[in-house]
Amino acid sequence: MARILLVEDDPALSRGIIAVLKAAGHAAHCAKDGETALLLADAEPCSLVILDIGLPDISGFEVLKRLRARGSKTPILILSARDHVTDRVKGLDLGADDYLLKPFNARELGARVRALLRRDGGDPCPVLVIGNLTIDRSRATAEVCGRPLQLRRREWAVLDRLTAKVGDVVSKERLIAEVFNYDDAVARNTVEVYVARLRRKLEPDGPAIKTLKGLGYMLQAS
Ligand code: CA
Hints:
The chain starts with a strand and ends with a strand. The protein is of the alpha/beta class. It contains 8 helices and 11 strands. About 40% of the residues lie in helices and about 20% in strands. It has 2 domains: about 5-120, 3-Layer(aba) Sandwich (Rossmann fold); about 125-220, Orthogonal Bundle (Arc Repressor Mutant, subunit A). The chain has a 5-stranded parallel sheet, with helices on both faces. A 4-stranded antiparallel sheet has the order 6-7-8-9. The longest helix is centred in the C-terminal third of the chain and has 15 residues, at about 190-200. Helix 1 packs across helix 5, helix 2 (about 35-45) packs parallel to helix 3 (about 60-70) and helix 6 packs across helix 8.
């Protein structure tokens, strides 16, 4: 169980988010404006802050800036209807750990909360969130923006290897070894075919799979 501070001025949305957090076994306390959020963050240490940007007094960006200026290292998840890339970049540059666009799916919120708490040393969890992609290793399923991907067994296996090393290069040889069990009959271009199919299934909102000539593939978070 984690203590989570929710900063959200919309009462209906706030109730919905608190229900999601409680269902996951967390204790949530809520601030309806930025100044209250800063007071609560000081008074009661928490494991995660979920922060709306459009608040009635100071903006969520300002709350974020002041929390980080005070040296707070608490993970912060921004919730915002502002989908412009400059807002996302601003939030992340100011020290947010993740950015979720409104309206969002309750399951995705749950998965991102798990991911952030895990990063902070919380319970290990088989669900991994990379940008708009959520994968659940225990069920071998993947979703992009809440849309389930129909993956064949080896497509799943390739995706699983790439997500395990997100931001790093995974060589073709390694994919042949781990996904195709060193099957020599697997031509190198078979791997290319699987990667190409996977790319199509991840498009347009999922993470990109970059080809690094002569080296292999890399899954990019954004
Ligand atoms: Ca708001």
